[in-house]
Design goal:
Elements (H helix, E strand, L loop, with lengths): L1 H37 L6 H25 L17 H10 L41 H4 L1 E3 H5 L12 E3 L5 E2 L5 E2 L24
Antiparallel strand pairs: 1-2, 3-4
Length: 203
């Protein structure tokens, strides 16, 4: 009788070993799946929140600028002297000034920073007391020169030294500076319902 039971015991032990191996493999598979799920690329929620906060700050600063100056800054691709000075550059001037030390209320949003043709330079140490703002902190403005973003000889018709506000998605540039991309600014004419396809300067 005892000899006949030995195969049954071996079958029970084998069955238990099989169940144990199954559970070990199942746990290992679950750990692998968990590791793959945790290591997958995910959106950077913190940086997204910082970017939203920057844009809200710019919106609020534009509101203050509008109340103090009587209107939004222009966004034409050129200034009144037909020099390349686009909306992103004018946005930076309006909120920070051309030298990041405040906006001069006599500004006509000219590339040369003067109050008119052959006029007086506005962004000098002598005009600091007359200026408004800056309306953003330098950290939130994250302003950089075009040359710092695109490199020498790569700024198209725009002068390399002009400042623009940049987003917070910074990456190393060939100049060695970490900078984001320019925050674009376009003042729409809300009284119109269609763009003038023949004149890009007429929104």
């Amino acid at each position: 009788m005892s000899c006949a039971r030995v195969p049954e015991r071996r079958q029970v032990v084998s069955a238990r070993k099989g169940v144990l191996v199954f559970w070990v493999l199942a746990v290992l598979a679950a750990l692998v799946v968990l590791w793959l799920w945790c290591s997958r690329p995910r959106p950077d929620y913190a940086r997204g929140a910082r970017q939203n906060a920057q844009l809200r700050s710019i919106e609020a600063a534009l509101g203050i600028f509008t109340r103090e100056s009587g209107g939004l800054p222009p966004s034409d691709a050129v200034d009144e002297a037909d020099q390349p000075y686009c909306g992103a550059m004018k946005l930076c001037e309006a909120l920070m000034g051309q030298d990041l030390r405040g906006f001069d209320p006599n500004s006509r949003f000219r590339l040369d920073g003067c109050d008119g043709p052959g006029g007086t330079p506005l962004y000098t140490a002598d005009t600091l007391n007359a200026r408004k703002g800056p309306f953003l902190t330098e950290e939130i403005a994250n302003a950089h020169k075009l040359v710092d973003i695109y490199g020498r000889g790569r700024t198209g018709p725009f002068p390399e030294h002009v400042l623009v506000l940049c987003d917070i998605y910074e990456r190393p540039r060939e100049t060695g500076i970490k900078a984001g991309m320019p925050v674009l600014y376009y003042r729409a004419n809300t009284s119109l319902t269609a763009h003038d396809v023949n004149d890009p300067n007429n929104p």
